[in-house]
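Researcher: Let's do a round of design. I'm pasting the structure tokens now; please hold your answer until I've finished.
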């Protein structure tokens, strides 16, 4: 046992729908890992009841002083927001984006992971080697929240709404540099930059220019610039050419859903919203939403949330434990313990228990 046992304080925000189910799964896996660590580390959980139900009671998605309370934690473990009773843009901006922006979590890392024993629309022969990661600019771009409604002007008499993207040189540079640094930690040192700069001639052209400038600092890393429509096709047709894919907020959001669907299900995809300077807590969450269609049935796939917990371990510097957890996930799918979205019959609890069992091996 280490002389000073590490105690990590984690804020859990399960929020809506299956968020609560998969966060509970992730918590029990992490607690099992801590219990097996011989006292080397432990997790101290505080749960916050924020989300759409809280909104129904208070008119806000989270407490007014929520960010102040969260900033004391080592990390935030998040479920999902969104419920039919609250307009989606209110639930998203009122909680998830408020935390992301409040804590300057400007890098969103979303690995696309192909697991053994999981069917994918890609041919089996091609899948074994596949493994790439989408790096999403998480602070500006198309989600800058810039614009307004009721502009008078050229509309044919009807309302005009304007939604602008914001690309700053600093914002582009930090995420692109982050992608190159990440590429250097991977077997394949390559960064693919994605824009639609032929049609979006200001912000995305700036992005392309910054990409070329930063690339010059990383002569050991292979690069390519691909338009987002072509990249969508490439995800399906030539994914073996990918390693790190860096893109703006909206483009990366769409591409990472495509990646997880290719891997077999949205329920598989993990993600980390990082404040790389570590001035503020980072947030770990599955990519999927609250899935109202299956919420409350105990059948949600917990693998995206558990994989996000593994990313949190990495963030804490517990990389060996993260590796163990990822191997336990692979052992579980390889053994055929699959939830409904992957064509199996295992419940959330059964998949979670199988992952915990596999940790012991
Ligand atoms: P968001 O806008 O928050 O991204 P969304 O509206 O895109 O959410 P999800 O809530 O992610 O959608 O659900 C999309 C589909 O994927 C639904 O059919 C849902 O049941 C399924 N799904 C999402 N997460 C899971 C999961 N963990 N396990 C099984 N199925 C899931
Ligand atoms: Mg979605």
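Researcher: That's everything. Go ahead.
Model: Designed sequence:
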């Amino acid at each position: 046992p280490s002389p000073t046992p590490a105690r990590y304080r984690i804020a859990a925000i399960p929020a809506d729908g299956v968020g609560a189910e998969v966060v509970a799964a992730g918590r029990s896996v992490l607690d099992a890992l801590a219990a097996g660590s011989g006292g080397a580390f432990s997790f101290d959980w505080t749960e916050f009841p924020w989300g759409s139900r809280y909104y129904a009671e208070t008119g806000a998605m989270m407490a007014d002083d929520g960010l102040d309370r969260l900033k004391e934690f080592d990390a935030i473990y998040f479920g999902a927001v969104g419920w039919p009773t609250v307009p989606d843009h209110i639930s998203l901006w009122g909680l998830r984006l408020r935390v992301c922006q409040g804590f300057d979590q400007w890098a969103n890392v979303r690995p696309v992971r192909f697991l053994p024993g999981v069917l994918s629309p890609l041919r089996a022969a091609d899948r074994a080697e596949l493994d790439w990661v989408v790096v999403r600019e998480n602070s500006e771009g198309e989600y800058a929240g810039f614009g307004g409604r009721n502009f008078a002007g050229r509309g044919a008499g009807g309302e005009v709404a304007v939604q602008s993207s914001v690309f700053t040189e600093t914002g582009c540079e930090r995420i692109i540099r982050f992608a190159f640094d990440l590429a250097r930690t991977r077997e394949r040192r390559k960064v693919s930059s994605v824009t639609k700069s032929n049609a979006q001639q200001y912000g995305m052209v700036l992005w392309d220019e910054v990409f070329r400038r930063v690339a010059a600092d990383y002569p050991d890393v292979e690069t390519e610039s691909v338009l987002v429509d072509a990249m969508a096709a490439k995800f399906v047709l030539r994914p073996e050419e990918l390693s790190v894919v860096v893109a703006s907020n909206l483009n990366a959001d769409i591409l990472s859903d495509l990646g997880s669907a290719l891997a077999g299900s949205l329920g598989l995809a993990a993600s980390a919203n990082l404040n790389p300077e570590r001035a503020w807590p980072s947030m770990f969450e599955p990519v999927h939403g609250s899935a109202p269609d299956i919420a409350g049935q105990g059948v949600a796939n917990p693998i995206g949330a558990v994989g996000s917990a593994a990313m949190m371990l990495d963030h804490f510097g517990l990389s060996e434990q993260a590796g163990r957890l990822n191997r336990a996930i692979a052992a579980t799918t390889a053994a055929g313990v699959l939830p409904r979205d992957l064509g199996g019959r295992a419940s959330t609890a059964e998949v979670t228990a199988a992952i915990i069992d596999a940790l012991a091996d």
